[in-house]
Every structure is written in structure tokens, then in C-alpha cells.
């Protein structure tokens, strides 16, 4: 199997580390060689962050170059647009429609770009945009956006839901498990 590449992008403090660990666990349990990079970027709350997950028969490096990502999973619209050049021509973006103002917008030196989903689609990208924050809140916590996104991403994998839930059980503390299972299901079925 050729190596597949997943980029998880977002803003610090949104749970991208748990999402990448969950994917890594899931794919290793399926027998793949998996490389997960550390979170790169300003992982303090508010800064842009990216994590790479690569899997296949044999994976040499955890790094994904421009034009190589099969999937970009984005916690925030502007981050999806920012990393678009890393997507393969037939790649898939799975993004939350949440908008978090970056520092230039907060300070008034820039405006948040409008119509980002349409602009990304206009480049030929396949974009699956979902209000993951609303679904996370429906599950019981705004912090579950990461698991809603994993549920949505599961649509694009030929893996049984039980495998995803087993990895969720391995990665999430028991007291948050039911909430996260609900978040996963809401994302999957949205």
C-alpha cells in the first residue's frame, strides 16, 4: 500500500494532539506502519498548529510536503485555506466552519477572509465543511470539536466504526468517553 498522508491543522488549544494520537492508534491497530509528527507551530492557545499523520506498509518520515496530503482535517476555516497548497489534486478537506480570529484580525490590521469554503472549492478542492462546534456542544462540550472531526473523517476510511470507537476508548479518559462517543457519532452522521 502506498503511504497515505493526513494533515491536522488548527489553532493551539483545540485538541489536535488528541486527534493525531487517536488516528495513530487506530491505524497501528489496523496493522499499518504509522508516523505521527509532533505538533508544529504556536501551540499556545491561539497560534497556528499542524500535525502530520502518515501511514502505509512502510513509512520513512513523518513530514508531508506541498501537494502530498490525501486529507487535511481542519479545526478552523482559515487554517484549512492556509494549508490548501499541501493537498493532493484529488485530496479531501474535512473542516469545521468555525472562525477564530488570528492576531492581525484581533488587532485590526487585517480582516477575516470571506467565503473561504467557496474559494477553496473554486481551486478544485473537495471540501466537506461542517459546523463541528455546534455538534460538539450538542454532544456536551465545545472541547469535543476534535472528535466530531474524527467522526466526519471516518466517512472517508474503509474501517469499521468499532475500530474507531476502540481507539477512542484507548485515548480518552473514562469520565469523558460517553461524551466523546456521542461527538464522534454526531460528526459521522452529520
Architecture overview:
- There is one protein chain.
- With 190 residues, the protein is an alpha/beta fold.
- It is built from 8 helices and 7 strands, in the order E-H-E-E-E-E-H-E-H-H-E-H-H-H-H.
- Helix 5 (132-139) crosses helix 8 (174-189).
- The protein starts with a strand and ends with a helix.
- The relative contact order is 0.16.
Roughly how many Å is the radius of gyration?
A: 16 Å
The coarse silhouette is globular
Helical content class: 25-40%
CATH topology: Pyruvate-ferredoxin Oxidoreductase, domain 3
Q: Return the domain count.
A: 1
CATH class placement: Alpha Beta
Question: What class, by secondary structure content?
Answer: alpha/beta
CATH architecture: 3-Layer(aba) Sandwich
How much beta, percentage-wise? 15-25%
Per DSSP, the total helix count is 8
Report the count of strand segments.
7
Oligomer: single chain
Query: What is the arithmetic mean of pLDDT?
Result: 93
Features:
single chain, 190 residues, alpha/beta, Pyruvate-ferredoxin Oxidoreductase, domain 3, seven-stranded mixed beta sheet, 7 strands, 39% helix
Chart the SSEs and their pairings.
Elements: E1 4-11, H1 16-29, E2 33-36, E3 40-41, E4 48-56, E5 69-74, H2 77-82, E6 87-96, H3 103-106, H4 116-122, E7 126-130, H5 132-139, H6 145-153, H7 161-171, H8 174-189
Parallel strand pairs: 1-5, 5-6, 6-7
Antiparallel strand pairs: 1-4, 2-4, 3-4
Helix pairs in contact: 1-6, 1-7, 5-6, 5-8, 6-8
